[in-house]
Fold Metallo-beta-lactamase domain-containing protein.
Amino acid sequence: MRFCSLGSGSRGNATLVDTGGYRILVDNGFSLRELLRRLERVGVAPATIDCLLLTHEHADHVKGVASFVRRHDVEVWTTPGTWRAAGAPDVPRLRLLSGPGQTLELDGVRVSSYPVPHDAREPCQFVFESGGHRLGMLTDCGRVTPHIQQFLSDCDALILEFNHDSQSLQRGPYPLSLQRRISGGFGHLSNRQAGDFLDRLSWGALQHLVVAHVSEANNHPDLVLDTIRSVSTTLAEQAVLWEQDAPSPWCAFASGTQRAHGPAALVEPSSSPG
Ligand SMILES: [Zn+2]
Ligand SMILES: [Zn+2]
């Protein structure tokens, strides 16, 4: 299993998970043209994407979904609430989850959805299991619940939102109502919240930490790193930050490191999209 970002942040999100035999795109907050441009940069032909999973209906996650799946006849999986709130566009192959919490078996990949507190209709996030590895995603989440903590406790790779620094948000350009929405229990994780979550996590098995959905207006990579460093210097050295304007390098699990046989290890990103 390997994974990468096509872009991460409030202006558009899309994540690729590739098991070798099966390719999953999570969300598409980019126009069709921009998505195709970014896919080309990570070396993925759009026709090779097998399915698209949606976390929730906010524009930075669904803006380009309908145009992409119509053009390339891709299966879409999402919750009924997310699909309705996204305007229920007519697409060729819609598959509705029974709700956040359903687990799918997709051609050798186990995809577990789980609910998150976020100001959307029926939002969820995902954990992917394949080849003995477990990759967890957590972005667009107002607070970490005990259920989330438990659900993500056994991952060997974690994509985690460090959305804002609370002081930067208070001093920043956003109106008070938007500040309250972002910092509220159904908004986004602050650096401190994400750091506290990591601190409580049994992250000894965590070989790869990805910093995602970082606010350009209300955060800075140095502040994120300071937060992670306060939890563990080892984790801070491992952490990779996903950017808004460019795809990330691929992250791949080294072969022979399945968790059933001992702690996982990840190789360094195998290629750079430039
Ligand atoms: Zn978002
Ligand atoms: Zn959102």
